[in-house]
Design goal:
Largest sheet: 6 strands, antiparallel, barrel
CATH topology of the largest domain: L-fucose Isomerase, Chain A, domain 3
Structural class: alpha/beta
Pfam families: Fucose_iso_C (PF02952)
CATH class of the largest domain: Alpha Beta
Mean pLDDT: 96
Distance between the termini: 26 Å
Protein name: L-fucose isomerase C-terminal domain-containing protein
Number of domains: 2
Shape: globular
Number of helices: 15
Helix content: 25-40%
Organism: Hoeflea prorocentri
Strand order of the largest sheet: 10-11-16-15-14-17
Oligomer: single chain
InterPro entries: Fuc_isomerase_C (IPR015888), Fucose_isomerase_N/cen_sf (IPR009015)
GO molecular function, one term: L-fucose isomerase activity
Length: about 475
């Protein structure tokens, strides 16, 4: 953003997060902008849905600003960002806010919203500037001025193209003929989960079959009670506190595990990509997160939000690592501490649990239903990878890190890690690369094997 005099401000939020806390953050963001010397226009309250966002866009249009700044106060899908990108032919910026790592729920999850937005904008070829900064930081004034001067604009990354080789062909060969069942379509605004089955098959040899959520739910309801009891017994061996959650909702959740296992056997599927919300809660009445943990431990990867490429990524990493994998969101980056946080609702394989603390049965923080697994990830070497469609082409995005022995940052399954490169470099490269919001994680150092696999797949590599 250059020579900005009038700035349109579009504050985004969702009511499933901590609205009171989000309003506090929004006030601090607006206060910081008020001291920047810019004339502000647009809504001063959180825009909680599509209709409110549309009204906000029209309000900003009427003021004819020089640039538009989207305030990513909580997680949202990328729909609102893309609506703004289409509406304004002028510089566009995104500002997301961190939240404290105090062991409770993700109250805002704004970084994940920034991640979705950056991928969608990158895929659309739309330049943007960005910031991930606390509005009460002592450096906020200089950060904002850098944003306005265009110093925080994304710089697209091409990755390193590798010479074709056979070294990684063994792992790649394991993908040929694998089958992913996509159950339900990905949510609107999740460009990160878009896919073309023919392109995926051409790249990897993996086939995708599309199934409906209703069939999964019907299969779950029809599962024999004795099968569900066996699954409950397995969960009781893994978790403390199973008796403390709603038992009817728990039964429905466990039935989803039984149904996924039955579908795997009947259809010959190797992985699933499941539309996990909202219908599992609103139409069926139980969470699929705990069942996803169980399936992952059994080396049948499941990807949230019907993320087919996420499931394919898990299959490749699982083959290379010869161990269970976990599809994570990156939810925080702290430059001062030089750490990041990976998280998901409560679905990591139980073998990834820190043995120094008991894994707990819990409920979904937003939807309030079981079953979710809750534990901190154990310390150790980890590898993160994504078969990415960033900026409309295939690339492998790869990172190595050390999972640290730290208190749980957020509820669910989460871990604090230190990347091989400083967070001050990793964070901008996440934006510059156009990385999706899901990466697969496995324990161990598998970077060189994955680079060999990328060469066999003829994929350029971006190392975070």
């Amino acid at each position: 953003m250059k020579e900005v005099q009038t700035l349109g401000v579009l504050p985004l939020g969702r009511p499933t997060f901590d609205v009171a806390f989000a309003e506090e953050k929004l006030k601090a963001m607006l206060d910081a902008l008020a001291t920047s010397g810019k004339t502000l226009c647009g809504p001063a309250t959180l825009l909680m849905d599509e209709a409110a966002t549309k009204e906000g866009i029209e309000q900003i249009k009427a003021a004819k600003p020089d640039a538009v700044l989207i305030l990513q106060v909580t997680f949202t899908d990328a729909g609102a960002t893309m609506a703004a990108a289409s509406a304004f032919d002028m510089p566009l910026g995104l500002w997301a806010v961190p939240e404290p790592r105090i062991g409770g729920r993700l109250r805002l999850n704004a970084f994940c919203g920034l991640n979705l937005a950056s991928h969608a904008l990158g895929r659309a070829g739309r330049p943007f500037s960005w910031m991930y900064t606390d509005p009460q930081s002592p450096d906020i004034g200089s950060e904002l001025q850098a944003l306005f001067r265009g110093e925080r604009i994304v710089a697209p990354m091409d990755g390193v193209s590798l010479s074709p080789q056979t070294k990684g062909s063994e792992a790649v060969a394991t993908l040929g003929g694998k089958r992913i069942a996509r159950i339900g379509a990905h949510p609107d605004g999740f460009d990160t989960c878009r896919y073309d089955a023919s392109k995926l098959k051409e790249l990897t040899g993996i086939e995708v079959e599309e199934l409906g959520l209703a069939g999964l739910f019907d299969t779950a309801r029809a599962m024999p009670d004795e099968v569900v009891q066996d699954i409950r017994a397995a969960a009781e061996r893994d978790l403390e506190g199973l008796e403390s959650v709603n038992q009817e909702e728990l039964d429905r959740s466990l039935r989803l595990k039984a149904a996924l296992s039955a579908l795997k056997d009947d259809g010959g599927y190797d992985a699933f990509a499941i539309r996990c919300w909202p219908e599992t809660f609103t139409e069926y009445g139980g969470a699929v997160c705990g069942p996803v943990s169980m399936m992952g431990e059994a080396r049948v990867p499941c990807a949230c939000e019907a993320d087919v490429y996420g499931a394919a990524t898990q299959l490749l990493l699982q083959s290379v690592a010869d161990s269970p994998v976990f599809l994570v969101d990156m939810v925080d980056m702290d430059v001062a501490d030089d750490t990041g946080v990976v998280w998901h609702c409560g679905q990591a394989p139980i073998s990834m649990a820190d043995p120094k603390s008991d894994a707990q049965a819990t409920i979904h923080t937003n939807r309030k239903m079981p079953l979710l697994y809750e534990f901190g990830l154990r310390p150790g070497r980890v590898t993160l990878m994504r078969l990415s469609q960033a900026r409309g082409r295939h690339v492998m995005i790869l990172a190595g890190a050390e999972m640290l022995e730290r208190p749980m940052a957020f509820t669910g399954t989460s871990g604090v890690l230190r990347f091989d490169r400083p967070v001050s470099s990793v964070l901008p490269d996440i934006m510059n690369s156009g990385l999706e919001h899901h990466m697969a994680l496995a324990y161990g150092d598998h970077g060189e094997a994955l680079i060999a696999a990328a060469a066999a797949l003829k994929l350029p590599v971006i190392r975070l």
